[in-house]
């Protein structure tokens, strides 16, 4: 019997993106019902599916191969208690299924006997045909030698290793893996839940569990009221999922939903990405993480004797990691913060203030369009954050990046981009050069228009200096692209 799977779970099992399956559904190649597909339909669409190469099998195999390493086991597998509970709940489901099948079997047998008796008492051709059909159908089912539904079996295995969380009211989904808490899994998957300290003190991450079972894995001090407990509220930062969950939780819909924060952080490292570009790694305290949306910026400040030095920079890391913040700092002689950083006056272990976040250079919510990113020099920083977020939430079917350099080390993380292009089927990277910022914008836009037949159907994100943004914007609007499809940030 074919098993129903959510689109997200099906994509995870066969190793494709959710967007890829949704595209096949829209094109009529894959039948779906109320957000689910059957394992039978999946195997019909992917007849050559090799489970040993699929995403789900690969994940299970990786765990199996490394299960004897204690450190890996702690990172990739749930605790023994959670594993035991998941197996228990699956055994309960199996027992319920067997009881239902037994009831249906008894009902069919009783109906068959009743039809046989009626045929003897009141012989008629329709009754005899009905009894014959029922007997033949029952014999066919009981004697069936159908092949094992391999996807259904793999799904059962994956449910022991991980749990799927459905978010209400947004309808979003994500997978909780290993020993993660629900909050950690949500952030890693690119969601934007409400939270604060992340360690059970503030209560901002409390949410109502509509269905499913949780297990507390961390202590907490925040006192849930009796009413909240009765309504099944729990702290997402201190609980993991034992079964699949449906959770009502507050999510940031726009940058305005995230409050401005002031955090005293530490410099983790300063490394050279190029001759004129440094990567600054700032780490926030465990109890005071920066909540932000991918693509946003902050102000960084350091004390320097009698004066404070401040710089505004886009966050170059994914919002899924709220403690480790990366910034791409270009050499700028008139910027005292950058001057001090390049001079080595700001080093690992130094205190640094973080104010923010601010800015609305974020992914368009619920957009199903393919995306085009145009960046100039360190405009790649917020674009990198957006791309990593888009990959985490599978927000776009296709991503094209045109990165234009106006200086010698303008493509300071080119290997990173080429790695994306190598491992992602729907990602393309195009490095360009230009003599100045205005020419860079025109070059990036015109090249993208020439390369991509569907530019007018994409969401376009432009990041870089003012002259770059304006020239790229003008070139794109001249092709008939709507202003509402452009999302820009000037750095």
In the CATH hierarchy, what is the class of the largest domain? Alpha Beta
Alpha-carbon distance between the two ends: 57 Å
**Which structural class should the secondary elements be placed in?**
alpha/beta
Low-confidence stretches: 51-75
Report the count of strand segments. 20
Percent of residues in beta strands: 15-25%
> Largest beta sheet, briefly?
6 strands, antiparallel
Fraction of residues in H or I helices: 25-40%
CATH architectural label of the largest domain: 3-Layer(aba) Sandwich
Mean pLDDT: 83
Q: How many structural units, i.e. domains?
A: 5
Radius of gyration: 28 Å
Shape estimate: globular
Kindly report the CATH topology of the largest domain. Answer: Rossmann fold
What is the topological layout?
Blueprint: E1 4-6, H1 7-14, H2 18-26, E2 36-38, H3 39-45, H4 55-65, H5 70-76, H6 80-121, H7 125-142, H8 150-161, E3 162-168, E4 173-177, H9 182-188, E5 206-211, E6 214-216, H10 226-230, E7 233-235, E8 239-241, E9 245-248, E10 261-274, E11 277-283, E12 297-304, E13 307-314, E14 324-330, H11 336-342, E15 351-358, E16 371-376, H12 380-393, E17 399-405, H13 414-423, E18 427-433, H14 437-451, E19 459-464, H15 466-477, E20 486-490
Parallel strand pairs: 3-9, 16-17, 16-19, 17-18, 19-20
Antiparallel strand pairs: 1-2, 3-4, 5-7, 5-9, 6-8, 10-11, 10-15, 11-14, 12-13, 12-15
Describe it.
It is a single chain. The protein has five domains: 46 residues, no CATH class; 63 residues; 100 residues, Ubiquitin-like (UB roll) (Roll), CATH 3.10.20.30; 103 residues, Elongation Factor Tu (Ef-tu), domain 3 (Beta Barrel), CATH 2.40.30.10; 120 residues, Rossmann fold. The protein has 491 residues and is α/β, with parallel strands linked by helices. A hairpin with a 4-residue loop joins strand 3 and strand 4. The strands form five sheets. The chain has a six-stranded antiparallel beta sheet, covered by helices on one side. The radius of gyration is 28 Å and the shape is globular.
């Amino acid at each position: 019997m074919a098993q129903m799977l959510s689109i997200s779970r099906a994509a995870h099992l066969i190793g494709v993106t959710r967007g890829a399956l949704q595209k096949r559904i829209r094109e009529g190649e894959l039948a779906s019902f109320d957000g689910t597909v059957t394992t039978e339909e999946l195997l019909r669409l992917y007849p050559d599916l090799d489970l040993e190469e699929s995403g789900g099998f690969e994940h299970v195999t990786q765990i199996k191969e490394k299960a004897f390493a204690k450190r890996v086991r702690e990172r990739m597998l749930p605790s023994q208690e959670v594993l035991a509970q998941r197996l228990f709940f699956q055994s309960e489901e199996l027992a319920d299924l067997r009881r239902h099948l037994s009831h249906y079997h008894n009902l069919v047998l009783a109906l068959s006997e009743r039809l046989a008796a009626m045929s003897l008492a009141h012989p008629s051709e329709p009754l005899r045909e009905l009894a014959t059909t029922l007997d033949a159908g029952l014999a066919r089912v009981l004697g069936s030698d159908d092949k094992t539904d391999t996807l259904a079996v793999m799904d059962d295995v994956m449910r022991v290793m991980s749990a799927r969380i459905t978010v209400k009211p947004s309808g979003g989904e994500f997978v909780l893996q290993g020993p993660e808490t629900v909050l950690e899994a949500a952030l890693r998957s690119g969601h934007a839940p409400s939270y604060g300290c992340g360690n059970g003190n503030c209560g901002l991450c409390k949410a109502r569990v509509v269905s499913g079972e949780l297990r507390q894995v961390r202590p907490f001090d925040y006192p849930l009221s009796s009413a909240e407990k009765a309504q099944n509220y729990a702290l997402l930062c201190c609980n993991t999922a034992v079964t699949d969950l449906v959770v009502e939780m507050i999510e940031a819909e726009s940058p305005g939903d995230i409050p401005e924060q002031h955090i005293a952080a530490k410099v983790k490292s300063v490394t050279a990405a190029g001759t004129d570009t440094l990567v600054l790694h700032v780490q926030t305290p465990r109890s005071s993480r920066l909540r932000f949306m991918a693509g946003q910026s902050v102000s960084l400040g350091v004390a320097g004797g009698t004066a404070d030095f401040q710089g505004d920079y886009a966050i170059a890391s994914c919002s899924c990691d709220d403690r480790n913040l990366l910034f791409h700092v270009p050499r700028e002689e008139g910027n005292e913060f950058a001057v001090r950083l390049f001079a080595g006056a700001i080093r690992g272990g130094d205190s640094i203030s973080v104010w923010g976040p601010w800015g609305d250079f974020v992914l368009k919510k619920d957009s199903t369009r393919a995306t085009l990113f145009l960046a100039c020099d360190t405009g790649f920083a917020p674009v990198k954050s957006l791309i990593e977020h888009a990959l985490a939430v599978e927000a776009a079917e296709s991503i094209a990046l045109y990165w234009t350099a106006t200086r010698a080390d303008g493509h300071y993380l080119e290997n990173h981009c080429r790695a994306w292009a190598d491992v992602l089927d729907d990602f393309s990277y195009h490095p360009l050069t230009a003599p100045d910022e205005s020419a860079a914008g025109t070059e990036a836009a015109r090249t993208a228009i020439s390369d991509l037949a569907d530019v007018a159907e994409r969401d376009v994100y432009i990041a870089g200096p003012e002259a770059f943004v304006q020239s790229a914007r003008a070139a794109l609007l001249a092709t008939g692209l709507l202003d509402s499809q452009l999302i820009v940030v000037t750095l």
